[in-house]
């Protein structure tokens, strides 16, 4: 073994190599943690959709919110012109946590940064559908349909 080989061994076993090993270890940990963040991670969810009507007519532009009684993360969806909604748990995941929920239906809720036009007529719903909700739902794994006919 010549002087060049001894210098190379010493260089790789010193403080520089220690920093490189730490950096490599941190990179491996980061990659492993990112792999674990796939679509299947997180709590058990059930897909939830349905229709909200008011007096038998579709209720558009209403926020439907499912709040788990366990206190975990809620799920929300807006009704379209036909009163149909689909809940989103996050921006990328559909559904709600499996289990019992308190359900709120609210109107006049601003979503995003779009300006609300003052000419838009907002239907006022009784507090029994939102602030003091009496609505409940039991979300199961798989697909769930919950229709709400408000009076």
Automatic annotation (TrEMBL):
Matching InterPro entries: CarboxyPept-like_regulatory (IPR008969)
Domain of life per record: Bacteria
Name of the protein in question: Nickel uptake substrate-specific transmembrane region
Organism: Rosistilla carotiformis
Organism placement in taxonomy: Bacteria, Pseudomonadati, Planctomycetota, Planctomycetia, Pirellulales
């Amino acid at each position: 073994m010549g002087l060049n080989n001894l210098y190379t061994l010493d260089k790789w076993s010193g403080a520089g190599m220690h920093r490189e090993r730490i950096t490599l270890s941190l990179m491996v940990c980061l990659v492993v943690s990112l792999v674990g963040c796939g679509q299947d991670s997180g709590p058990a969810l059930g897909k939830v959709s349905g229709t909200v009507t008011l007096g038998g007519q579709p209720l558009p532009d209403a926020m439907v919110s499912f709040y788990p009684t366990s206190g975990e993360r809620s799920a929300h969806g807006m009704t379209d012109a036909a009163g149909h909604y689909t809940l989103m748990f996050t921006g990328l995941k559909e559904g709600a946590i499996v289990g019992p929920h308190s359900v709120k239906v609210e109107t006049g809720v601003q979503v995003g940064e779009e300006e609300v036009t003052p000419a838009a007529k907002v239907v006022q719903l009784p507090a029994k559908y939102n602030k003091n909700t009496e609505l409940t739902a039991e979300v199961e794994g798989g697909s769930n349909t919950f229709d709400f006919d408000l009076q």
